[in-house]
């Protein structure tokens, strides 16, 4: 099973780029890497998903090295509203949820 | 279009009781998954339903069960509640055939006293 490890917390300032790394040494061939953002009293919200190399959308980039044993979520120019908990998920949802694992979450605090 | 709706938002139950939580997925989504979120264990997958059939199941005891109806709405049931079942229960729906994002509801906060 892919154990997923990420830093407990990170601090940043408005306008900076934030990189959050997730380690998943035992990732399986069929597993994808997905990142979610969660605010208090809300359900997680999808940010980005990738399988290998680099994926970019309007809010973030996801970097995945060739061995896929880690991944890095990059948030460009963060603002105060990006203060939240970010979860890394490794697995193959919804086709094989049995082995998917969420990281414990990284609490990002953006300061003015 | 409307998001995932979970009811009720908050619930207080006594040990030994049973509880039923409801989830209405986004229109057109046939996959519904349930998760338990606690400070100690984080986010954990409970089970997933697709077309009224349980397709995947996480590592939870048999006291946790669920079902899905023909309109894709889903319910989960927890019997013989224990204090440790206090958690935020999240439901998520996704579009079949798209290995992409799951859309989460706001959750039901269950407190067992």
What would you note in describing this structure?
The complex is a heterodimer of chains A (112) and B (113). With 112 residues, chain A is mostly beta strands. Chain A has strands spanning 9-13, 18-23, 32-38, 45-50, 53-56, 61-64, 70-75, 84-92, 96-102, 106-111. In chain A, the strands form 2 sheets. In chain A, strands 1, 3, 4, 8, 9 and 10 form a 6-stranded mixed β-sheet that branches. Chain A has a 4-stranded antiparallel β-sheet with strand order 2-7-6-5, with no helix packed on it. In chain A, a hairpin with a 3-residue loop joins strand 8 (84-92) and strand 9. The radius of gyration of chain A is 13 Å and the shape is globular. The termini of chain A are far apart. In chain B, the strands form 2 sheets. In chain B, strands 2, 4, 5, 6, 9, 10 and 11 form a 7-stranded mixed β-sheet that branches. The radius of gyration of chain B is 13 Å and the shape is globular. Chain B has strands at 5-7, 10-13, 19-24, 31-38, 42-50, 53-57, 64-68, 74-78, 87-94, 103-104, 108-112. The model of chain B has no long low-confidence stretch (mean pLDDT 92). Chain B is mainly beta and 113 residues long. Classes of the chains: A mainly beta (112), B mainly beta (113). Chains A and B meet through strand 3, strand 4 and strand 9 of A and strand 5, strand 6, strand 9 and strand 10 of B.
Mean pLDDT of chain B, as a whole number?
Answer: 92
Give the helix level of chain A as a range of percent.
under 10%
Most extensive chain contact?
A-B, 23 and 27 residues
SSE sequence of chain B, one letter per element:
EEEEEEEEEEE
Uncertain residue ranges of chain A: none
Strand content of chain A: over 45%
Distance between the termini of chain B: 37 Å
How many β-strand stretches of chain B?
11
Identify low-pLDDT runs of chain B: none
The number of helical runs of chain A is 0
Number of helices of chain B: 0
Percent of residues of chain B in helical segments?
under 10%
What's the multimeric state? heterodimer
> Measured on Cα atoms, how large is the radius of gyration of chain A?
13 Å
Shape of chain A: globular
User: Terminal Cα separation of chain A, in Å?
Assistant: 40 Å
Query: Count of DSSP E strands of chain A?
Result: 10
> Mind describing the biggest β-sheet of chain B?
7 strands, mixed
Structural class of the helix and strand makeup of chain A? mainly beta
């Amino acid at each position: 099973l892919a154990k997923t490890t990420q830093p407990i917390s990170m601090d940043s300032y408005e306008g900076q780029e934030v990189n959050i790394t997730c380690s998943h040494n035992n990732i399986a061939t069929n597993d994808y890497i997905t990142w979610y953002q969660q605010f208090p009293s809300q359900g997680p919200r999808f940010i980005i998903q990738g399988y290998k190399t680099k994926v970019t959308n309007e809010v973030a980039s996801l970097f995945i090295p060739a061995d896929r044993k880690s991944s890095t979520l990059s948030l460009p120019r963060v603002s105060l509203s990006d203060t939240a908990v970010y979860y890394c998920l490794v697995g193959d949802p919804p086709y094989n949820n049995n082995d998917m694992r969420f990281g414990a979450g990284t609490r990002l605090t953006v300061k003015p | 279009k409307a998001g995932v709706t979970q009811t009720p938002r908050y619930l207080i139950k006594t040990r030994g009781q049973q509880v039923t939580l409801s989830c209405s997925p986004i229109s057109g989504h046939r996959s519904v998954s349930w998760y338990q979120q606690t400070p100690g264990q984080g986010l954990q997958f409970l089970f997933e339903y697709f077309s009224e059939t349980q397709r995947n199941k996480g590592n939870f005891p048999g006291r946790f069960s669920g079902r899905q109806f023909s309109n894709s709405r889903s319910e989960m049931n927890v019997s013989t509640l224990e204090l440790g079942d206090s958690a935020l229960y999240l439901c998520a729906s996704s579009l079949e055939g798209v290995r992409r994002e799951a859309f989460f509801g706001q959750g039901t906060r269950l407190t067992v006293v």
